[in-house]
Amino acid sequence: MRLLIEEAKRVLPHSYAPYSGVHVAAAVLTDKGNIYRGVNVENSSYGLTICAERSAISAMVTAGERRPVAIAIVTDMDEPIPPCGACRQVIAEFNSEAEVVMHSVKTGKTVVANLRDLFPSPFKLRSTG
Description:
By secondary structure, the protein is an alpha+beta fold. Helix content is 27%, strand content 24%. Strands 2-1-3-4-5 form a 5-stranded mixed sheet.
C-alpha cells in the first residue's frame, strides 16, 4: 500500500482547500492494477465541494473501470482521516469490501481498515455484485 500512499502524496499539493485548510488527496487501485488520483476541491458554496475520494472514484469511472480494491486517503492533518459518509457510500457502490488506507503526511501515521468495518450497511437499490 506504500505505492498507493505515494501516488496520493504526489497530487496532494494540487488540493484546493482555501476555506477549511484541510488538504486531502486520494489514490484508487483497481482490480486491473490501475491507479486513479483525486484531490478535494472546495467551493465557497460548501455544498459544491468535492472530496478527494469521490474525485478519484470519478476518474476511475471516467476511464471505464468499476472495481476499486483499495483507496489511499492522504492528508496534511495531524491524524489520518477516514472517508466521510458520502465518500463511504460512493466507494461502496463499486466495492463494499475495498481496503481503506488513511495516512497523515504530517506525522507519518497510517491506519488501514476494510470499508465494510467503516460502513457496514451501505444503501442499495439493487445488487451491484
